[in-house]
Design brief:
Blueprint (H helix, E strand, L loop, with lengths): L6 H12 L4 E6 L11 E3 L1 H7 L13 H12 L9 H10 L7 E4 L2 H9 L7 E7 L7 E2 L6 H5 L2 E4 L5 E3 L5 E4 L4 H12 L3 H4 L3 H26 L7
Antiparallel strand pairs: 1-4, 2-7, 3-6, 4-8, 5-6
Helix pairs in contact: 5-7
Length: about 230
Amino acid sequence: MHKPRTVNGILRKIEEKVDTGEYLYRGEPEHYQEKPYYRKVSSNLYRVFLEDKEFDVEDEQFDIEVVQREMLEIAKPFIRKTYSEIECLAEVQHYGGKTNLIDFSEDYLIALYMACNSSLDKNGRVITQRIELIDSYIKNPYEPMNRVIAQKSVFVRHPDGFIQLNDEDVINIPAVLKIPMQEHLKKAHGIYTESVYNDIHGFIRHQSLKLETYRMTYKGLSQEQKGDSENG
């Protein structure tokens, strides 16, 4: 596994692959190196079964697409517009639901942002995936949503629910570099929360992350206005 230790080192390592134009990118805020996640990038629906200690996903009878089709039939009455199957799945994924879609981006800078935007005390990773190996599994909505466009998203619908990785596919993002990388992405490329999560659900996500800060700031100001500068 490649482990560059500076922001510039990480950028150089990824750009070696960017220049070929043969890759998609995925950023994850943690490594998930322990079993059963090791050397896999998986859909969030697959992980539901992967994390069930009483269920063996390696059983050859397990078919995640059967599960997804059944869930999709249940979801359709809740979706107002008439969508194609991939549009329905993209919408469910967009709202935080479970599907067999794995999000990638055509833009390595977006992947870097995703790897650095949370779990600031843990190492993240950027997965570089050669397109020719998954080309038949790539599915894109005909009418992409704002966030899909902003994130230059590409959905991979693998029948196994996961893609097997090797060490060459993964670039480590040290926890100590997550904030410096965020600062670089914002200043140099205009990539930050509002540009990546550019809808009301992005605001809700941002609000949930910052709500404690807002609460403590208001409490402090209130104490200062009452003359209690120490507690303020």
